[in-house]
UniProtKB/TrEMBL annotation:
Domain of life from the UniProt record: Bacteria
One GO cellular component, as annotated: plasma membrane
Entry protein name: Tol-Pal system protein TolQ
Lineage of source species: Bacteria, Pseudomonadati, Pseudomonadota, Gammaproteobacteria, Nevskiales
Encoding gene per record: tolQ
Residue ranges of the TM segments: 16-38, 141-161, 173-197
Amino acid sequence: MNGGLSFSHLILQASFLAQVILALLLLASILSWAVILTKRSLLARAKRNAADFESRFWSGGTLGDLYTTMTRNREPEEGVAAIFKAGYEEFARQQGLGGRTEPEDALAAVQRQMRVAQVREVERLEGGLSMLATVASASPYVGLFGTVWGIMSAFIAIGNVKQASLAMVAPGIAEALIATAMGLFAAIPAMIAFNFLSRAVDQLETRYHTFSEEMIGIVDRGLRGHGAKA
């Protein structure tokens, strides 16, 4: 490709609207990559923390010992740890009532607190995924709009001259197609990452739910006076 049809030259010589569209698509691509990298790191850490905490949870100590260790060490309250903390604190509160609450009602209170904590953790993991979905779905149409506008401008320019040549038409068509390429450049990684990250969030949500159900079984035995061994 010669210098007259280089990408940089076409972008610099493009109309103001075309430059705005390309800038928006470039910004969308940068933001989506920032979300992708951030979420990938967050989900990997959440998966690792869940495995570590579950290993400690099933190590054989009591729930009280585990809670005390978490509090004393000021451990981060994320993922499974946050769900456990919410459930144990409500469990301890119910036990402190001295049996004035029926076990079924106390268990329901613990379940509510754990469910709220689980929803909050899942929402934290899902943050930013909607932006990826928006970029994946909207970018091709934004690029297509730029392409249609560029082709319209090229044909209008052809209509204003008596003789049209390929050299006259090519820059306008190339400028229009750059918008489509930029739209796909922003959309494809966002779509792939959205599917991958959504599946990872679903897996963690299932893991959180399974942990909650297992802990509820232990809490149920504790509320009925059979101890609270993990």
